[in-house]
Amino acid sequence: MKMKSLKKRDSALANSKRQLEILSGGIFQNGELPTFKTKIAETNQFPLKPKPLEILQINVGYMCNLVCKHCHVDAGPDRKEIMTRKTMTQCIAVIKATGAHTLDLTGGAPEMNPNFRWFVEEASKVGIKDFIVRSNLTIITSHKRFRDLPEFFKKHNIHVVSSMPHWTRGKTDKQRGEGVFNNSIKALKMLNDVGYGIPGSELKLDLVYNPSGAFLPGNQSAMEQDFKSALLQDFGIHFHALFAITNLPISRFLDYLIASENYEDYMYSLVEAYNATAVANVMCTNTISVSWDGWLYDCDFNQMLGLKVASKTKHISTYNSEILNNRDIIISQHCYGCTAGSGSSCQGTVT
Amino acid sequence: MQKTYYDPKDLKKFGNITEWSEELGNKFFEYYGKVFESGALTAREKSLIALAVAHTEQCPYCIDAYTKDGLERGITKEEMMEAIHVGAAIKGGATLVHGVQMMNKVNKLDL
């Protein structure tokens, strides 16, 4: 049976309030484990405050051609939330006005937004230093209208960041769906063919590794070596860096953790791996996340939990750096995902 | 008092052994940590050896710990199973090689 989003399934967990109740209840309510607030307060890091904005991460819509089991966005073909050109125009105005050096487009599959190419063309005129598109790879092979994406990315000097949970087919398809591995390999070859990911090339191609189950990512550089040698040996594929990202216990990954009776053990693993030095560099301190409808969030995870920034200015149309920088970052127990081990962010480890 | 000998939750309490013998406990965990660092063998290879030994020792805590450790390192289930077969082959071999002792004894005592 084809997997559907939690929203389409009318799952109780499609409601972010229910997710937040779970994250604050049980083992955190009865004191078995310390809350994230208690934990960061131990090192005087509460309340968590932002630093100057470096990364504007824009979620251009929740529609996706895949329905990955661990997706924190609950994305899928049945999600219709899509950013309009009007909101994109407001985003571009903010990019111009702020000193952010990185623009990070995510989704869903950002390429499925009908205004995606227009947005990339307009935003690249602003002269941003690092312009990232988080591409799921399979979109490139999914339909002939997407097959020129590698050339399009190259034309605008896009930094392509793509998910790849393992260098073997079995583990990849289990997480991301039947056939995803082979299509991802095809897409990686297409990207390599135009110069992406080749050693020394300025066309950046990085991969994101998310564990395919209820366990934490291992050492990022060791994993990178394993990925590089396996992908090169088996398929002749090159890429630049591997970002190891911890799965946060929200949305479909939370649903999986609960259904597989792994939730408590996973939270224990996250809390045991807590690293106080990672807190200073968590991505919410230098990133603002914008949703498809223009609301502002501390990160993409808070976006999915419906936690708009705790600030008077909450929307891209009224963006004000000064007011936003005075806010407290909203936290809950999912934040343990970003402080486990070497830390985790959309750019990989943080320590 | 619990009615089973093994409880998965006890693995989390492993560090508590230090409470009743601080010096020896600390020395053990320091040694343990050092053993698993990359050296002439990679940490990945050591994890697979640990998994195989966990099975020959039939330690349920170690099996849980090193299965999870292997997954975290991206070790595949095929690699894990092959490692366990290495352990099983040595266990089986260790039993059967004693058959020579039995044969020696039979040859000595039998007419």
What does this structure look like?
Chain A is α/β, with parallel strands linked by helices and 351 residues long. Chain A has helices spanning 16-24, 26-29, 36-41, 85-97, 116-124, 138-142, 149-155, 169-176, 180-193, 220-235, 251-259, 263-272, 276-279, 300-304, 321-325, and strands at residues 55-59, 102-106, 130-135, 159-163, 205-209, 242-244, 287-290, 296-297. Chain A has a single domain, classed as TIM Barrel (Alpha-Beta Barrel). Chain A contains 15 helices and 8 strands. Chain B has 111 residues and is mainly α. Chain B has a single domain (18-109), classed as AhpD-like, CATH 1.20.1290.10. Chain B has 5 helices and no strands. In chain B, helix 2 (43-56) runs antiparallel to helix 3 and helix 2 packs across helix 4 (77-97). Classes of the chains: A alpha/beta (351), B mainly alpha (111). Chain A binds chain B through residues 166-168, 170-171, 209, 211, 213, 215-219, 222-223, 226-227, 268, 272, and chain B through 12, 42-44, 68, 71-74, 76.
Primary descriptors:
heterodimer, A: 351 residues, alpha/beta, TIM Barrel, eight-stranded mixed sheet, 10% strand, globular, B: 111 residues, mainly alpha, AhpD-like, 5 helices, extended
Task: Walk me through the topology.
The complex is a heterodimer of chains A (351) and B (111).
Chain A: H1 16-24, H2 26-29, H3 36-41, E1 55-59, H4 85-97, E2 102-106, H5 116-124, E3 130-135, H6 138-142, H7 149-155, E4 159-163, H8 169-176, H9 180-193, E5 205-209, H10 220-235, E6 242-244, H11 251-259, H12 263-272, H13 276-279, E7 287-290, E8 296-297, H14 300-304, H15 321-325
Parallel strand pairs in A: 1-2, 1-7, 2-3, 3-4, 4-5, 5-6
Antiparallel strand pairs in A: 7-8
Chain B: H1 22-35, H2 43-56, H3 60-72, H4 77-97, H5 99-109
Helix pairs in contact in B: 2-3, 2-4
